[in-house]
């Protein structure tokens, strides 16, 4: 009888390598590995050989960088998204894409089970599993960290298991924190960062230099937008992934995009996260700048009211939920005509708008001027204010 197939979200690290062998050894699964390239760079080196040597029957290494930025990052950034004011959702936006691709492979391979290595304390378990079941309510989800059969609940136990089963364990010093990288950001959590008074070590950062070490000369760039999406830098059109990659490079060189926050996880606990999001930070500032001259006031304010709700949906794993999809349609409609150029000055960790222009700008200097004009009759303001004060005056009469 043929073994049942399972598709595993595989990174090549100790956890998923051990889980691969554990699924085979303990449950006789045929394990098919899925590696989603969303911008992990050198972290992907050698994964095919390692997965096959560890016992995978097949491995898919999928280049999803363009899809990640075009179909997940850009739609969220049209919403001017930020979770709890600061977190720009780097990991949150990648997980539904990875889970979707795992489900695509499961259908292709005829697998009725999928597996992941996320723990029962974090957000990723929710993001993976909500996506799996949103796309196939009948799929079997295997999450070893939440199973009684999983007894490998420490790094030392997993290393012993790996050595027992011939899984290569890299001889490297364990990092005093966990790290997750994609094209939008790098996150750092756990370990020494769990003490909230510990300042992050400068050697920890990968994408950015410190503001103190950034160049003494400001860097000026112009980002062009089309219906809410960035399409060019300094007049050079680029694909979504190439554009974000270039903004990462420029921002990182100028110390842009570091944040240190304590966020509220969906499962109920507070967790410290240190993030590098250089390109996303620049993109967010520039996007807001072009909206300021192309977006109707009430539409902008409505979108801003909805943004925290949208951000929470993405953070909590509801990318494929109907409420997120409905909100996305409203957001995308609001972005029609958000087209033009924004000039920014980057200097030692700061990102400041220095110019905006659009063919269909709603800004009219003839109306906004403080000089004498023939367009705006200032006497109209008296009646406007008197009408708007009516309820306040009525209230004052009965409460004074």
- SS content category: alpha/beta
Helix content: 40-55%
Helix/strand order: EHEHEHHEHEHEEEEEHEEHHHEEHHH
Write the CATH architecture name of the largest domain. Answer: 3-Layer(aba) Sandwich
Q: Taking strands numbered 1, 2, ... along the chain, how are they ordered across the largest sheet? A: 3-2-1-4-5
Extract low-pLDDT stretches. Answer: none
Question: Mean pLDDT, nearest integer?
Answer: 94
Instruction: Give the tally of structural domains.
Output: 2
CATH topology of the largest domain: Rossmann fold
C-alpha end-to-end distance: 86 Å
| Name of the CATH homologous superfamily of the largest domain | HUPs
Q: Look at the structure and give the CATH class of the largest domain.
A: Alpha Beta
Shape: elongated
Number of helices: 13
* Rg estimate, integer Å: 25 Å
Sheet with most strands = 5 strands, parallel
Strand content: 15-25%
């Amino acid at each position: 009888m043929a073994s049942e197939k399972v598709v595993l979200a595989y990174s090549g690290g100790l956890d998923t390598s051990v889980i691969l062998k554990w699924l085979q050894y303990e449950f006789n699964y045929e394990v098919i590995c899925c590696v989603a390239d969303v911008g992990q760079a050198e972290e992907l080196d050698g994964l095919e050989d390692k997965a096959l040597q560890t016992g995978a029957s097949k491995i898919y290494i999928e280049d999803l960088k363009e899809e990640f930025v075009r179909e997940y990052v850009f739609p969220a950034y049209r919403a001017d998204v930020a979770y709890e004011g600061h977190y720009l959702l780097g990991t949150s936006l990648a997980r539904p894409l990875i889970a979707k691709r795992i489900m695509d492979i499961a259908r292709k391979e005829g697998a009725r089970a999928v597996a992941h290595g996320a723990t029962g304390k974090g957000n990723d378990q929710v993001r993976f599993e909500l996506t799996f079941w949103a796309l196939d309510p009948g799929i079997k989800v295997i999450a070893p960290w939440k199973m009684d059969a999983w007894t490998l609940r420490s790094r030392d136990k997993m290393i012993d298991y790996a050595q027992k089963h011939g899984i290569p364990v890299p001889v490297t010093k364990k990092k005093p924190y966990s790290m997750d990288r994609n094209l939008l950001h790098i996150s750092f959590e756990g370990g020494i960062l769990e003490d909230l008074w510990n300042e992050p070590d400068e050697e920890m950062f990968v994408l950015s230099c410190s503001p103190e070490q950034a160049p003494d000369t400001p860097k000026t760039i112009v980002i062009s937008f089309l219906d809410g999406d960035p399409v060019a830098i300094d007049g050079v059109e680029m694909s979504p992934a190439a554009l974000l990659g270039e903004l990462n490079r420029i921002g990182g060189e100028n110390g842009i995009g570091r944040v240190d926050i304590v966020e509220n996880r969906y499962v109920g606990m507070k967790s410290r996260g240190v993030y590098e999001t250089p390109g996303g930070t620049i993109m967010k500032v520039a996007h807001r700048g072009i909206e300021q001259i192309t977006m109707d006031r009430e539409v902008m304010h409505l979108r801003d009211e909805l943004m925290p709700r949208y951000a929470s949906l993405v953070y909590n794993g509801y990318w494929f939920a109907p409420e997120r999809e409905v909100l996305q349609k409203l957001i995308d409609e609001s972005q029609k005509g958000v087209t033009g150029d924004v000039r920014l000055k980057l200097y030692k960790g700061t990102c400041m708008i220095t110019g905006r222009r659009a063919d269909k700008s709603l800004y009219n200097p003839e109306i906004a001027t403080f000089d004498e004009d023939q367009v705006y009759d200032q006497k109209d303001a008296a009646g406007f204010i008197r009408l708007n004060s009516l309820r306040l005056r009525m209230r004052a009469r009965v409460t004074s």
